Inverse folding.
DNA sequence: GGGGCTACTTACACAAAGGAAAGCGGTTAC
DNA sequence: GTAACCGCTTTCCTTTGTGTAAGTAGCCCC
């Protein structure tokens, strides 16, 4: 129930700092659109209206905000070309590829979890 | 800007299903307390009031809700011992250990990201 | 000069997440 | 009997995230 007060827990400090990092990571990729946007732009660079068209359901307000957010975190870069009218292209940076293994883990775990939950619902009924 | 319509994107379908799984995983571990609770109970099984004491800041309403959630997802088990008064112990299940590598990835990425952002703020100023 | 396009911004609204405080049913301690 | 503890639940409120609709600045076309 409780380890004694004096015996430090196995790796409590390491654990809380690792928790802090994990929560930071979550806060960066969290939200309905962020991962989708990153993946979308990793497939190819696109303009605002093209992204809006591909991500059916996102409003321009949210898209603008999310793009700003992603740019701040260095996942994407905003290029302005002085054509008339001006062309603005959003491009995934190399840094967005640093998410690859994280997304891989998330996806692998998420996939097996869905299976597990489906299984346990079947067994329950 | 846009790949031609007929040439299918590198792995678009795989990508959207992987996105779906990743979002599922996020929805399960998402929230201010879930990961902390899992890690807390992985260190040792505990009673409601002990958890509440260890996680300073969580309200009983939220704690009860989160514990229910985690139990539904099979991360923890609720044991009732018929002592007087009844003792209730929450214990991390083996399944919660399946999160280990995911938490590891999150934490590793989060740690390096914080460094990177700090760096880029320094360079900017 | 009216309408349309692009890349947004602004104002408003709503729903979900989370927190504060009180209560509750059962028990033990005094 | 009354006070306290445990494991919650209930009520109310604030904050955060997201959505809808409209507007705007700059340019083009006719």
């Amino acid at each position: 129930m409780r380890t004694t007060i004096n015996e430090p827990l196995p790796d409590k400090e390491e654990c809380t700092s690792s928790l802090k990092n994990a929560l930071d990571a979550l806060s960066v990729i969290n939200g309905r659109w962020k991962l989708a946007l990153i993946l979308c732009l990793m497939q190819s660079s696109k303009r605002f209206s093209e992204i809006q068209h591909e991500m059916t359901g996102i409003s321009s307000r949210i898209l603008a905000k999310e793009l700003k957010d992603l740019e701040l975190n260095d996942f994407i870069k905003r290029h302005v070309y002085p054509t008339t009218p001006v062309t603005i292209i959003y491009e995934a940076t190399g840094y967005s590829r640093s998410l690859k293994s994280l997304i891989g883990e998330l996806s692998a775990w998420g996939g097996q979890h869905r299976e597990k939950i489906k299984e346990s619902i079947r067994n329950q009924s």
Q: What stands out?
A: Chain A has one domain: 18-124. Strands of chain A lie at 46-47, 76-81, 87-92. Chain A touches chain B through 51 residues (CB under 8 Å). Chain A is about 60% helix and 10% strand.
